[in-house]
Design a protein that fits this description.
Elements (H helix, E strand, L loop, with lengths): L1 E5 L17 E7 L4 H6 L7 H16 L6 H8 L3 H7 L4 H26 L3 H18 L9 H7 L4 H24 L7 H22 L3 H17 L18
Antiparallel strand pairs: 1-2
Helix pairs in contact: 2-3, 2-5, 5-6, 5-8, 6-9, 6-10, 7-8, 8-9, 9-10
Length: 249
């Protein structure tokens, strides 16, 4: 499943209240469920273990870690009950850690693909937030970040899963920071901006899901893009050539 990245053309703007977008860009905002993303990391969604991880990721995104039970995972994955403990001897916690890292890796590819497909980091930042808003609308505000939902639940209660979510967030921050650095942003700023971008996105997801309105994600994207633009080095104006003031007699 993919959602096309929406981008407003000249003089157009996304309608945040209606969740509609004026025109589409060829780049796609691929959801974690897209098989093409599995290919990027060499995982086959048809294998039993991968299928368990795949469906559990969806369950975590929709209902969280604690509300997802082993029996539900088995049924959704169409897998024998014993296969859970065969592949994941540590049970639900081990599945959870694997889901966090696998989903994190897939979304890392998504971040890189969107940012690298745009003409510059400002356009890439806008495209990512607009794609995230479109994804929320397309999934009826069910699918947001696969990591944040779990992180909120386990940060104070399960150190194994907390560490896994922290590792994933760090990967995303590093990938974004690297692209800001490559764009010429001063060495002290890229990580700070990357952290700001991720924090803005995750917070906006919560607000948009509660309001069932993409406005928060779209507004956050605009402000992050402004911050990124402001951090870029100023372009030097081209020197104008003036005609010689001397004339031939």
């Amino acid at each position: 499943m993919t959602v096309t990245v929406p981008t407003a053309g000249p003089g157009q703007a996304c309608d945040a209240n209606r969740g509609t977008f004026p025109r589409k860009r060829a780049v796609t905002f691929a959801l974690v469920l897209d098989r093409s993303l599995y290919k990027l990391v060499g995982v086959s969604p048809s294998a039993t273990k991968s299928r368990i991880v795949h469906v559990t990721s969806g369950l975590f995104r929709r209902q969280g870690y604690h509300a997802t039970g082993i029996k539900q995972i088995v049924e959704a994955a169409n897998a024998p009950f014993g296969s859970i403990y065969h592949f994941f001897p540590g049970g639900k916690e081990e599945i959870g850690a694997q889901v966090i890292r696998s989903s994190g890796s897939l979304y890392l590819h998504l971040i890189e693909a969107i940012l690298d497909s745009q003409p510059d980091v400002v356009a890439g930042t806008r495209a990512f937030f607009e794609g995230a808003a479109a994804q929320l609308v397309a999934t009826d505000y069910v699918d947001a970040c696969p990591i944040a939902t779990v992180a909120l639940e386990v940060a104070s209660t399960n150190d194994t899963l907390r560490r896994a979510t922290d590792e994933v967030f760090e990967l995303w921050i590093e990938a974004t920071s690297d692209r800001f650095t490559a764009a010429g942003i001063d060495v002290a700023r890229p990580r700070e901006l990357a952290v700001f971008a991720l924090a803005a996105l995750e917070g906006a997801f919560v607000i948009s899901r509660a309001a069932r309105d993409p406005e928060a994600v779209l507004a956050a994207g605009r402000e992050v893009a402004v911050a990124v633009q402001a951090a870029l080095p100023a372009r030097r104006p081209r020197r104008q050539r003036h005609p010689s003031s001397t004339t031939r007699e």
